[in-house]
Q: What sequence folds into this?
DNA sequence: GGTATATTCTGAAACGTTTCAGATATCTTA
DNA sequence: TAAGATATCTGAAACGTTTCAGAATATACC
């Protein structure tokens, strides 16, 4: 009996059954249906299992048989570590996990490096949540190929998927309208990357919200449209405003944008930032350059991440309930898994939160 | 052919093979070993698969056959959503995910509600990372029962598991020594829950670091011992100090602790907090009560979370590299999975970061 | 033309469970 | 005591792949 080899053989249910001379199904029942066998035999089985070092029914085999993985997969455009530094994403995940936990489901974070999709193809999940992806992203297609229940956040669902949307148009329009009402006429707009190579300062024409950008985040597009609607109503020429495309969504990127805007010579009196992280980075640089906020420059963000309320001055921003978004995504996916009647949920509200970073221009 | 029923039958590799009159193994090879069949046939197979709506080899079956899940599981004492609000845990996860991503491994967040361990028993993973658990926590035992490669963070490993440890004793001693050197003699110590019911203000004797608390976090114990060592060397009586046991690790809990300390009448000149979150909560309350920091009260934290550098005044604290800790955990686990030679890694460094929240007593 | 070598494809045995219809044995009930 | 109900256990068929030794066919070489 050469058993103590380095690569120890895993003990299986069959061996436990053989050791006791009972049927495999009886051992299975000992674990899963205690009412199906006598208490005495069950106890003997569990004891023998412990002696032999049986680790209990192997989840992979059980899952194959039952055709369920007990987890849902979260797919994300950025490299995985990034998600842990993004406050909005974290709140969303918190909400998602809250719902899943109640159903005893796990959350699998799937590494999504472009071009290397093996992890996605092999992910042991019962469904997907797609987040921060554009409709044309290669991972989306691959995920849909899996033909699992799917919910897409901030994206128009394709196929049988469910969409979780927010009223981004309204939120953005409120933000722009607020600044217009305060008397602003010259704007800077700072936004996350929409092209492969972030282009920095851009002309308004090149990113007209109506131009069909090849591969754009829906939320970003909707927000542009909201800004544009407010501009148009006030007779403000979109093409005359200053735009800056960042390389990513981070405070550092926002800071870089602000520096470029300062260098540009054109001096907007108000900044519309497509995320709070960009806004906070820009604010810091503006202050360091001696600008008073909001007297010399008004700044309005988007998302209302926790840091927005704590900055000095506190950031005026558009609030959306990221946690609720995550919870809703989880609920929709669980409903889908149960085969419940299919129904697209209503878009979530977003509303302007007035704080200290916006005021009338001097 | 009643095929379009509600619960659509999943297409399998067998059906694809049958449709083309080729062997199942050939279809499998078309997906996994393109060099094993002619390009022409492979193309036909893939086309037929697409027509039939075959989603590709089902991961569960493949995983069972290959005996690998392609993910590792993270186990956590707190309810799952909590982890997303804990800066130290997030940094750790970021590091962990960074390592895993490089090996195309996913990270499964396992819901760990006590008493309901079904998710843990069924988790489809190749190994575990245990974090923020005490050695006697029921989940630990259950995880070890799975007999998978395991790394335990901030915990002495049992069985074949690997331990990731930090020099907490040194870090804590440095923190206490720093305050002693500044001239402090009366201390308050604020710490996270160590008993089922958090007890608030406690006597020093009841939590003597040498008393064997039944179910304590190792890191917390080591930090106590570090404080105690510094106290003893300076002739400061541990039992005369003021202790407060919080109900959880949060800013709110730290705030509550500070209020209790203020009400107690005893007024320490310095506060040793076992985490930065507790320290920041306490600092806020102290300031609101009119205390100047550090003149009226010095505060030293532990962890060096990002918020520590940004508080006013910036928090003096003990730094540990949470990201590196997560990375190391990932590397150890991957090595274990590969069957590499087993070796306990050295504990990580921790060192005092001097900032503005500590100074000589008035 | 015959042997050796590639190339392409196949069959059957795993992987380790759960499930469910049925086989025994035991208990009620009239 | 016969018949029905109940409790306990069994056997075999899935679940959907991958793997690997070998069969069949084509290609190369002397």
A:
């Amino acid at each position: 009996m050469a058993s103590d080899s380095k690569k120890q053989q895993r003990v299986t249910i069959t061996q436990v059954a053989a050791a006791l001379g009972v049927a495999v199904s009886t051992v299975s029942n000992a674990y899963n249906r205690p009412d199906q066998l006598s208490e005495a035999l069950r106890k003997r089985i569990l004891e023998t299992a412990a002696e032999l070092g049986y680790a209990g029914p192997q989840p992979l085999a059980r899952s194959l048989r039952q055709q369920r993985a007990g987890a849902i997969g979260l797919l994300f455009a950025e490299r995985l570590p990034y998600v842990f530094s993004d406050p909005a994403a974290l709140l969303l995940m918190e909400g998602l996990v809250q719902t899943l936990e109640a159903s005893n489901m796990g959350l699998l974070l799937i590494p999504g490096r472009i071009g290397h999709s093996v992890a996605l193809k092999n992910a042991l999940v019962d469904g997907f949540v797609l987040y921060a992806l554009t409709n044309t992203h290669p991972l989306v297609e691959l995920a849909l190929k899996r033909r699992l229940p799917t919910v897409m956040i901030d994206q128009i669902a394709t196929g049988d998927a469910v969409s979780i949307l927010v009223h981004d148009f309204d939120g953005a329009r409120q933000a722009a309208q607020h600044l217009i009402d305060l008397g602003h006429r010259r704007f800077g707009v700072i936004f996350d990357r929409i092209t492969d190579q972030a282009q920095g300062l851009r002309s308004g024409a090149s990113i007209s919200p109506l131009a069909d950008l090849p591969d754009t985040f829906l939320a970003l597009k909707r927000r542009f449209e909201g800004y544009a609607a407010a501009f148009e109503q006030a007779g403000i020429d979109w093409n005359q405003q200053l735009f800056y495309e960042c390389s990513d969504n981070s405070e550092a990127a926002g800071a870089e944008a602000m520096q470029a805007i300062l260098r540009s010579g054109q001096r907007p009196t108000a900044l519309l930032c497509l995320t709070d992280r960009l806004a906070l980075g820009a604010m810091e640089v503006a202050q360091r350059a001696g600008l008073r906020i909001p007297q010399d420059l008004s700044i309005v963000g988007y998302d209302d991440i926790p840091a927005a309320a704590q900055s000095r001055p506190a950031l005026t921003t558009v609030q959306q309930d990221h946690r609720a978004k995550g919870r809703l995504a989880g609920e929709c996916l669980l409903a889908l898994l149960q085969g419940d009647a299919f129904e697209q949920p209503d878009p979530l509200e977003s509303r302007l939160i007035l704080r200290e970073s916006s005021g009338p221009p001097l």
Observations:
- Residues 194 and 216 of chain A are 6 Å apart (CA to CA).
- Residues 168-321 of chain A form a domain with the Rossmann fold fold (CATH 3.40.50.2300).
- Chain A touches chain B through 51 residues (CB under 8 Å).
- Residues 1-7 of chain A have pLDDT under 50 and may be disordered.
